[in-house]
């Protein structure tokens, strides 16, 4: 008969094993540098392609191909933190510098000065926290981009938004079964 482990010890052990944002960022950067893996992704000229990867510490990870002129639209990853790195091409990220309420709203008016923009060329990446609202775009007219993304905990949902000027509107909530 084995001794029982107190619940508080097992919860702390699970939390200690959970990847940090820094660990996710390290993973996506290293994976994006794997030329053989990146070259194995089938690219479609009409739409994004993706392959699920094994992420660190139980995280969800993806290798994603971006045809010229494609993007995600405004969205967040709910309670998941994440990281992504560009493996090929350049991706643009537009984001908001404020944390939005997680529930109870359908339309918000954003204050001036909350918009952030960054270009992530091959080899560059970034990490982000929970409820990070952003859109990712391949603005090239001719070149595919490829990137690696990781999320922890695995994505419980994605909230999709529309944006007109300063008004952000919740449009749709997607669950894992919608994109698996």
Short characterization:
By secondary structure, the protein is of the alpha+beta class. It is built from 3 helices and 12 strands; from the N terminus they run H-H-H-E-E-E-E-E-E-E-E-E-E-E-E.
Describe the structure.
This protein has helices at residues 7-17, 21-32, 35-40, and strands at 49-54, 60-66, 74-76, 81-88, 90-96, 107-109, 115-121, 125-128, 134-137, 145-152, 158-164, 167-174. It is globular. The protein has three helices and twelve strands, in the order αααββββββββββββ. A hairpin with a 5-residue loop joins strand 1 and strand 2. The strands form three sheets. Strands 1-2-10-4-8 form a five-stranded antiparallel beta sheet, with helices on one face. It has a four-stranded antiparallel beta sheet with strand order 3-11-12-6, with no helix packed on it. It has a three-stranded antiparallel beta sheet with strand order 7-5-9, with no helix packed on it. The protein has a single domain (18-178), classed as Jelly Rolls (Sandwich), CATH 2.60.120. It has 180 residues and is an alpha+beta fold.
Main β-sheet, spatial strand arrangement: 1-2-10-4-8
Counting structural domains, the number is 1
Total number of beta strands: 12
CATH topology: Jelly Rolls
CATH 2nd-level architecture: Sandwich
CATH C-level class: Mainly Beta
β-sheet strand percentage: 35-45%
Query: Any low-confidence stretches, pLDDT <50, length ≥5?
Result: 8-14
Order of helices and strands: HHHEEEEEEEEEEEE
Structural class: alpha+beta
CATH superfamily: Jelly Rolls
Number of helices: 3
CA distance, first residue to last residue = 41 Å
Mean pLDDT metric: 90
Biggest sheet layout: 5 strands, antiparallel
Whole-number radius of gyration?
A: 18 Å
Provide the helix percentage.
10-25%
Shape by Cα distribution: globular
């Amino acid at each position: 008969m084995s001794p029982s482990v107190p619940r508080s010890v097992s919860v702390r052990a699970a939390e200690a094993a959970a990847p940090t944002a820094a660990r996710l960022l390290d993973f996506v950067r290293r994976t994006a540098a794997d030329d053989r893996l990146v070259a194995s992704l089938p690219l479609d000229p009409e739409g994004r392609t993706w392959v699920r990867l094994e992420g660190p510490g139980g995280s969800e990870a993806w290798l994603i191909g971006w045809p010229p002129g494609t993007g995600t639209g405004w969205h967040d990853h709910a309670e998941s933190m994440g990281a992504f790195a560009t493996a090929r091409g350049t991706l643009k990220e537009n984001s908001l510098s404020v944390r939005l309420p997680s529930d109870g709203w359908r339309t918000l008016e954003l204050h001036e000065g909350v918009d952030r923009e960054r270009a992530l060329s091959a080899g560059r990446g970034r990490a982000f926290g929970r409820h990070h609202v952003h859109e990712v775009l391949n603005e090239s007219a001719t070149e595919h981009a490829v990137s690696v993304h990781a999320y922890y905990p695995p994505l419980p949902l994605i909230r999709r938004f529309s944006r007109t000027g300063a008004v952000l509107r919740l449009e749709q909530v997607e669950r894992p079964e919608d994109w698996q």
